[in-house]
Amino acid sequence: MSESVMHIDLNADLGESFGAWRMGADSAVIASITSANVACGYHAGDPAVMRATVRLARDAGVAVGAHPGLPDLIGFGRREIRVSPQDVEDLVLYQIGALAAVAAAEGVRLQHVKAHGALYNMAVRDRSLADAIARAIKAFDPALIMFGLPGSEMIQAGQREGLTVAAEGFADRAYEPDGSLTPRSRPGSVIHDVDEVVHRAVRMASEGRVTATDGSDIPLRVDTLCTHGDTPGAPEMTRRLRQGLETARWWPRRSDGCSMHLTSCCGRWCSRRSCRISGSTREPPASWVP
């Protein structure tokens, strides 16, 4: 493997359909990502959708993570609701457990947890809520990776609990000068120009910086980049995003470094060379590309 090739995770929010209501283009987006954030039934998703999404990710070799949100189906989890830290800890634990059970039935182990929408944004600035999310993750499985906004209360909460954290950048979202996401209620909060999305993503990965809404450059070191599956044109945007990262020699790879996340060894060549699950060690063939 060339020393000049670098790695970054590419994630997307999936499994957000509900009953007869279809949301997103999961089967098209899955081909370009390395980690899937699967809705757990509170803001979107249902048992059948959760199971189908886990299968889709498993068959594509994409890592599965829980995407817990506030109990707000009508508002898609994007409206702030007054909740206590105990409420948050319990609802996050409940949703992780629900997805983990579905995943186990399909032979998949969860890789990470990423809060959704309003819950994510509330925890970015509220230490008590961020701590509640981190406690829920640790209580279920301290090996799970906690996704959060760089430099936010969420990253600090995960570190305090001894969790592995992944700083997340949003390729298709605008940023405020303080590093927070521009509220969706404001024009321009979601970026639809594909070339601009790719440029911003590559810059986040390569330089650790992004241009804020006031034109200033702000630091933003990221381990994983997110695109939204419900954004119009998501499949093409995600494909172009991955292509742009690879052209810049940033090879998309899951946050856990493995090529799969099954309950038994996948038997495939893995970028870590040593399988976390089976304990076996393999040397990849000379033609192997990370």
Characterise this structure.
This protein is of the alpha/beta class and 290 residues long. It has a single domain, classed as TIM Barrel (Alpha-Beta Barrel). It has helices at 26-29, 47-60, 85-105, 117-125, 127-140, 153-160, 194-207, 234-247; strands at 6-14, 35-39, 63-67, 112-113, 145-148, 164-170, 209-211, 217-219, 224-228, 250-252. It is globular, with a radius of gyration of 18 Å. The model is unreliable at 259-290 (pLDDT under 50).
Write the CATH fold name. Answer: TIM Barrel
Order of helices and strands: EHEHEHEHHEHEHEEEHE
Mean pLDDT: 87
Query: What is the class in the CATH system?
Result: Alpha Beta
Termini separation comes to 7 Å
The major sheet is characterized as: 7 strands, parallel, barrel
Q: What is the CA-based Rg, rounded?
A: 18 Å
Helix fraction bin? 25-40%
Strand percentage lies at: 15-25%
CATH architecture: Alpha-Beta Barrel
Strand order of the largest sheet: 1-2-3-4-5-6-9
Helices, by number, come to 8
